[in-house]
Design goal:
Number of domains: 2
CATH architecture of the largest domain: 2-Layer Sandwich
Order of helices and strands: HEEHEEEHEEHEEEHEHHEEEEEE
Number of strands: 17
CATH topology of the largest domain: Gyrase A, domain 2
CATH class of the largest domain: Alpha Beta
Strand content: 25-35%
Helix content: 10-25%
Amino acid sequence: MTTTVAVPRTAQDDYTTVRTAIGVYRISSPLVRVSGGDRYTLLDQFLAKSSEYVEPDSVREALALNADGTPFAIVLHFEIGDDSWLLPRTPITTEALRSYLDELDTTGDVTVEIDPEGWGATAFEGPRAWAAAAKFVEFDVSGLTLHGVTESSVPSDPTALAHLARVGTTGEYGYLLISNAPEAAHEAAVAAVLAEGGAEVGPEGLARVQAEAGMAVYAAGFAGLPVHEADLAWMIDWNRIGEFTGSDDLVKPTTELARLTALAAPAGTAFAAGTEVTAGGQGVGTVLWQAPSANPDEELVFALLNAPFWVPGLELAAQNEDGAESPLRTVTLPRVIARSLTTRIS
């Protein structure tokens, strides 16, 4: 009798799966449902972009700030029927989210529920993700446009409520399935992905793809940086200063300020957070985070660099964890051309 031993997947396996096929993963962040006629008034208290032009059956990415103007979380804001839904995509605990929402003015016709009725979410991303998504809708899946949301079904549980959104974190095709039967929905998504040659993926391979797409904060968080240093000014509606939590303390980015910057390093080198980055022997910044080593071609490092050293194409250096000086080169993001850009939904 022959025994088959499963070979554990590596971060590089997961990275390759997302880049070439489909990776499916469970989202652990709590869903928040905001209902009532005054729900937009509540959302506009803390989201850095106005709800004025939000469309029904849509999803958008929005930034919430702390009272001091530092980033609190990036959330997905769904409009589904008569409700707004929020789903954090950056690291945040349920307790911190609850404390944050408790500070808001909830008077009027508005109700906020965290984890209502056990709702949960599963996501799948990759150049073949549309093929798995097609199994959850009764129309041509190409009709679900980017940032669109549609009613869906869970094959194993006909009584379950579900919604499918076309939204992702990697630059590849991405879909997110939310349901009040999260276990059944997750199992259905895994089955659909496996049938199309994909696999369940872990956080490291996924984090590497996200970092290469320009959103390292999804896994790493904000490292205590203010909005202008975290390079998140594009998520702020600067015409609403003074109208939402933390907006009075925002600083508009200029070419004289330090900025979070991506740097490429030789494959196999590792850098500790807090390591000084140098140019010609002079300190010009600090390493904050290194993306998981899932791409065999190079390492991707994120550092806060002083102006003007955050411009792309500069040759810098830092001491690696072995004590030797290693070269670093500032690069542009996205770092890898997504296969989805040349893969047609059909």
